[in-house]
Amino acid sequence: MYSASGDYRNAAILILIGMMLDSMDGRIARMLHVESELGKELDSLADIVTFGVAPAMMAYYAYFSYFGIVGMAIAALFPLFGAYRLARFNINAVKSSLKYFTGVPITAGGGLLTLLTFFHGKMPGVIFVIAFFALCILMVSTIKIPSLKEVPLPKYGIIITLFLGYAIYMVFRKEHHRFPYFIYVAMPLYVAFIGYQLVRFKKKKQ
């Protein structure tokens, strides 16, 4: 709905928050011993909506709406390719290695498309269209992408991230125009935390 009203900034921020939460949901489920086949299916559906449909809606309203039904068809390619990528991952999840992904994950693809759309008006449309189709192809490709699944995520990290998410929600609920600015604090802290865990994991492995 933010995309439909032309508010790409808030739309992008909400998708990026979705990326933060997506990086933890599986680990939280395993930590609490509540993982299930139902949870896995719901996770895939949530991924298609958050990182497939939502970024495609942003792309449509920002760039492809000018082309009518052709623009709709082009924008629809992204969630379709993303759904195929997820389906392929789900049936090969047992066989796949923890060290790499086959093809760009829909989370990364949707995140990159979101960031590109965020700069709507500051980037030539041709570059965006090329990047759009490239991401679609990369998702269904067989390129090996390094995975960070083996990096541990301690309990206090989950608490910190949930607190940041709650704080963002409170700011957003009370004052709409202040919402985008708070993420400039939350995201660097989250990125710094992930970087710290990578260094810590590397030292531990050595």
Automatic annotation (TrEMBL):
It is found in: Endomembrane system; Membrane. It comes from the Bacteria. Pfam families: CDP-OH_P_transf. GO terms for cellular component: endomembrane system; membrane. Keywords: Lipid biosynthesis, Lipid metabolism, Membrane, Phospholipid biosynthesis, Phospholipid metabolism, Transferase, Transmembrane, Transmembrane helix. GO terms for molecular function: CDP-diacylglycerol-serine O-phosphatidyltransferase activity. It is an enzyme of class 2 (transferase). The chain crosses the membrane at residues 69-86, 98-119, 125-143, 155-172, 178-199. It is a multi-pass membrane protein. It catalyses: a CDP-1,2-diacyl-sn-glycerol + L-serine = a 1,2-diacyl-sn-glycero-3-phospho-L-serine + CMP + H(+). Its EC number is 2.7.8.8. One of its GO terms (biological process) is phospholipid biosynthetic process. Belongs to the CDP-alcohol phosphatidyltransferase class-I family. This is CDP-diacylglycerol--serine O-phosphatidyltransferase. It comes from Neobacillus massiliamazoniensis. The lineage of its organism: Bacteria, Bacillati, Bacillota, Bacilli, Bacillales.
